Amino acid sequence: MFNGSRKYSPLPSSPSSSRASSSSSSSLPAAPRRSPRALQRHSSLLSQYSSLLESYTEGEIRQLISALVERYSQAMNSGGHELPLFPQAGSRRKRARARHKPCALKELEVSVSELGLGYESDETVLFRYCSGTCEAAVRSYDLSLKSMRSRRRIKKEKVRARPCCRPLAYDDDVSFLDAYNRYYTVNELSAKECGCV
Question: What UniProt keywords are attached to this protein's entry (predicted)?
Fold first, then answer.
């Protein structure tokens, strides 16, 4: 299919065309030439890809092309502007998007033992928690506090110079039986409403 060792030669020219080109060559500026090192790197890359593609069957190449086209169309439909060729770049974008999700209420089904409160129980509860960023909720207080910390006007106190996604209200109390059939009630366990405080 592809041959990496292919060498390109100039097109054959007739004597009349060589005469015309020699007369017009003085009026045209010289075209910039690539350095031999750049050409060598480019040809080695082409030979690697061509030898890789030669190992595929025609059906496999069609599958590869259709997968790339589908991936490209998905990227365009989701508002992307470029084809995410490398998985690392995609994961970086996902992490960046995750960092900028607004503060919201999330939930998770867990056993009482997993809560880390010292109770042994196999009962499951719905644990609601707050997750997200509060960049939009930055106020003058937060900016001034950050400035005072950077100028070392506030040194020893532990202060937070930006709002945090926290529960504004809590769900009803949670009751359960532990592994020894003892009855417990825990209050303010699950978030009911989240906000930036």
Answer: Disulfide bond, Growth factor, Secreted, Signal
